[in-house]
Amino acid sequence: MMNNVHISPLDNEVFLKLIQSYEPDQIIAIVDENTVGFLDYIHLITDINIDAIQLPSGEQHKNIQSLAGIWSDLTQHNFRRNGLIINLGGGVITDLGGFAAATYKRGVDFINIPTTLLSMVDAAIGGKTGIDFLDFKNQIGVIKDAEAVFCDVAYFDSLPTEELLSGFAEVIKHGLIADEKYWRYCIGTPYAELKWSKVVKGSIDIKGGIVSRDPEEKGERKLLNFGHTIGHAIESLRLEQKPILHGFGVAAGMIMEAHISMQKGLLAEEAFKKIEEKISALFPKVSILKTEIPALLDIMKNDKKNTSQEINFTLLEEIGKGVFNQTASKVEISKSLEYYIG
Ligand SMILES: NC(=O)c1ccc[n+]([C@@H]2O[C@H](COP(=O)([O-])OP(=O)(O)OC[C@H]3O[C@@H](n4cnc5c(N)ncnc54)[C@H](O)[C@@H]3O)[C@@H](O)[C@H]2O)c1
Ligand SMILES: [Zn+2]
């Protein structure tokens, strides 16, 4: 487990001690309209009345205007260098609030209280913060770790089911790239019977281990991109007309990137079939047209991480063993897309 991450309800000693070590009027929470209500619980267990900066929810607000709004509110509030920012929300809030904290007065302390599955197992841990800029996701940002991250799966009670499922794609990814036993628990247990605290812990252990060994993504951290090369391309393509949830794109991307792994002789056919079967049983099929393949290839090609004619991928050698710095040709990618389209 990453040593700054705690999986438990908030009324634990670490949280209470931490909160009490800051001046009460120098603690500010950043929330959106769906998470502002969770502040009541903090007020209940701490007696400290924490002021909040509330943003409208949604990825379209993870931008420079919201960031400037936060800087401005902090300034008007006379928020000082020794204060604490509490990011209470999903990945949009932890990315934006983390970046605001990392930049305000050259950096103030912040903690993350992620309230979605995706943010607990991914966005809120590992220190990446940032905003979208022009048409590019996460174009501007810095790496700065939270003082602490508190994960309480009780927040899932109010989370829309498709948001929970979207986060589950990252969970499956963690199993596929690094831990066969964890994958078997996650796909072998009926979804409704999963023990979410166990799921969150397993994923954080995997991502945390990878990130601690390679914080700057020079090597191993690239494993976490599995499913994302094709997944992102589909997400981008659908952005204008009919946006899809990130995890749904990643789920489709994992099937296709597992298919590429099989084409390259890295992954056994039996393992591929199993991955396809399990992911298709959980996730809705993303509709893609054959005629959209060239556009998808173009999006992947334009990704700045690619240099040659080949496109970079993280692939699988086995269930539980990813391999980074791989490439695939347009022909291989097209074949996987055609296979998925059926
Ligand atoms: N920094 C990283 O390493 C990293 C990694 C992965 C994703 N991300 C970022 O995370 C963001 C996606 O995060 P997300 O999926 O959490 O999206 P999100 O923050 O938009 O949350 C999804 C929706 O659920 C609502 N919500 C949040 N918690 C709730 C709860 N407990 N009950 C009811 N509603 C709730 C939110 O208001 C929002 O409408 C993206 O911007 C992505 O780029 C960052
Ligand atoms: Zn992702």
Uncertain segments: none
What percent of residues adopt helix (DSSP H or I)? 40-55%
Distance between the termini: 41 Å
CATH architecture of the largest domain: Up-down Bundle
Query: What is the name of the CATH class of the largest domain?
Result: Mainly Alpha
Describe the structure.
The protein is of the alpha/beta class. The chain folds into two domains: 5-158, Rossmann fold (3-Layer(aba) Sandwich), CATH 3.40.50; 165-341, Dehydroquinate synthase-like, alpha domain (Up-down Bundle). It is 47% helix and 18% strand. The protein is built from 13 helices and ten strands. The protein has helices at 13-20, 39-46, 64-76, 91-103, 117-123, 161-178, 180-188, 196-213, 228-239, 246-263, 269-282, 293-302, 330-341; strands spanning 5-7, 27-32, 51-55, 84-89, 109-114, 128-133, 136-143, 148-151, 311-318, 321-328. The strands form three sheets. It has a six-stranded parallel sheet with strand order 1-8-5-4-2-3, covered by helices on one side. It has a two-stranded antiparallel ribbon with strand order 6-7. A hairpin with a 2-residue loop joins β6 (128-133) and β7 (136-143). α5 packs parallel to α8. The longest helix is centred in the middle third of the chain and has 18 residues, at 161-178. The protein starts with a strand and ends with a helix. The model has no long low-confidence stretch (mean pLDDT 95). The structure holds nicotinamide-adenine-dinucleotide and zinc ion. Nicotinamide-adenine-dinucleotide is lined by residues 32, 34-35, 57-59, 62, 89-93, 95, 115-116, 118-119, 122-123, 126, 128, 137-138, 155, 158-159, 163. Zinc ion is lined by residues 122, 170, 228, 246, 250.
